[in-house]
Amino acid sequence: MNHKQKGLLLLALILLGTTGRRAFALYQETHLTPFVLQDAWASYTVKVSASQIRGKEGAKEFVVTVIPRAGRKLSLSRRALLEIMDGENVVAAIPLEEKMAENRLTYWFRVAPKMLAETKFSFGQNAYKLTKDGKGNSVVMGIPGGGGAYFYLQDFISPKIR
Predict the structure, then answer these.
(1) What end-to-end distance do the CA atoms of the chain give, in Å?
(2) Torsions phi, psi of 159, nearest 5?
(3) Are strands 89-95 and 27-31 parallel, antiparallel or unpaired?
(4) SS3 breakdown of the chain: % helix, strand, coil, rounded to 5?
């Protein structure tokens, strides 16, 4: 880095520091496992049960709960996806419906046993700002930065429900 680049970097840092605004340009994602169930913003619970369809062993039911850590709020710009993979390729990305109760988000879904190894759940929160549209209505606008977590469904299947 030459002197001119260092000077510009220093100027940018000074401007960011003196404007009183936060800069969110980083997105941090945590890989959840049965032993790691939290990230910087939230803790997670993952409950799995076997379900029967027409009296036969069927899909695995998942209930995922996202609970903000003390002093944190859930972002208004968030999403949860179920991604079905085929090796490195995403075959389908399915947005999941959320239920909010007592400052907790809950997601429920079922997956066929043969698809567990190739399926991933992900939850993400983006930094945001509230703006107004042309009619004066409040609008949530996602901006760069935020974080989230993901896990592979197979990692949460215990031998008892396989």
Answers:
(1) 55
(2) -60, -25
(3) unpaired
(4) 20, 55, 25
- Name residue 127's amino acid: A
Is the Cβ–Cβ distance between 38 and 148 less than 8 Å?
Answer: no
Collapsing DSSP to helix, strand or coil, 94 comes out as strand
What integer is the mean pLDDT of 139-149? Answer: 85
Binned at pLDDT 50, 70 and 90, residue 44 comes out as: very high
| 11 band by pLDDT with thresholds 50, 70 and 90 | very low
In the sheet with 138-152, reading across from the earlier edge strand, the strands are: 27-31, 138-152, 119-132, 77-86, 89-95
Higher per-residue confidence, 101 vs 159: 101
Which runs of consecutive H residues, i.e. helices, occur in the chain? 3-19
Across the chain, mean pLDDT equals 82
CB 141 within 8 A of CB 109: no
Which residue, among 39, 23, 24, 25, has the nearest Cα to 123 in the 3D structure? 39
**Token pair 């939290």 in the structure block, residue:** 38
